[in-house]
Batch of 2 targets.
Target 1
Amino acid sequence: MSGEAVRIEVLAFDGCPHAEAATQLAQAVAARLGPGITVDRVEVDTPERAAEVGFLGSPSIRVNGLDVERTKTSTGALCCRTYDGGLGVPPEWLVEAAVLRALSPRGVLFLCVANSARSQMAEGIARFLAPPDVTVWSAGSKPTRVRPEAIAALAEIGIDISGHRSKSVSEVPADEIDTVMTLCGEEECPVFLGGARRLHWGLRDPASVGGSDTDRADAFRHTRDELRRRLAAVFAHGEPEGVRS
């Protein structure tokens, strides 16, 4: 795994009601994805200081100087900040994605039970988004077959996984993997015994959704879009966006 140091900063003004929660979130992510990750609190106590650091609101989390939402837009004012759903702290996955981006993983494994839907779509999307020097696998503890709905959902966005097959964890070269991501929601996730950093992005199995063909297709699309949103944050390239997405 990469030995590169990573610094997480939590920027907040004194009295911010969400500053402690943001700090605890950053520390939890650092502990899970470390070693070599430090967490520092940065107090922003005046408008001048806010302008100096390009303050986006309290609390903000930066990884190696880059905001987790990859925005450069700044009010430079002592104001509160809100995230998805009106929450006062960013979602945990977003902080994890920013840290992973800084760590530059080279071998990524996506795991679920059947290796039929979520992990297969994650593999396809990650292969599409990741730099050429990143190798991506997916596997399961009880592999079955790749769901045709997963193939169709990715085909809609120009990604072909029709040649994929479901694989067992034992088929994956453990010594080439530095990052393992489990995607199980309601099931018990497989165990990977190799030496790698581990994350858990629990997502509901779209294959468990009943109803009409349209309902099922929409469930796979929802999972696809959520995976694409998160993996785009991991494998983002170039300059930060000018506005928050």
Target 2
Amino acid sequence: MAKEITKKTITKKTTVKKEVDKKTNTTPVVAAPEFKLSVYTDKNIKISPRKLRLLASSIKKLKPLDASIKLSLTNTKAARILTSALKTVVSTAKNNYNLLPESLIFDSIQVDEGPKIKRMDKSHGSHFSRGIITKRHSRLIIIVKGQVK
């Protein structure tokens, strides 16, 4: 008897009233909003990955338009790099994929280590009687997701 009661309540909750078009005598199909991705990559940025990750992790939770406002108020080289990258990815999404800029959200922001430039200098420490200076570079990949117009 308990099973019959649960079946009745489930059928009552799932009943949907369908509207029928009078001219064609069919039910209209309402499509879910379509989402597309836009990707920005830069493989050789002259800044250490650690400095770039500090800002990238703080803007991940924001929308790209809000993140660009926050970055414009931050006075660092990483902020200037991320600002130009965000402008590029938003304009690409808008112009090439017809995405609404207000509906964009970050799918992922990845900051990886790029190539290192090493050179020797005697004044910088001693590693087998020479100092090695390492210039670090970054790779930046920004993926945004948005709704099609």
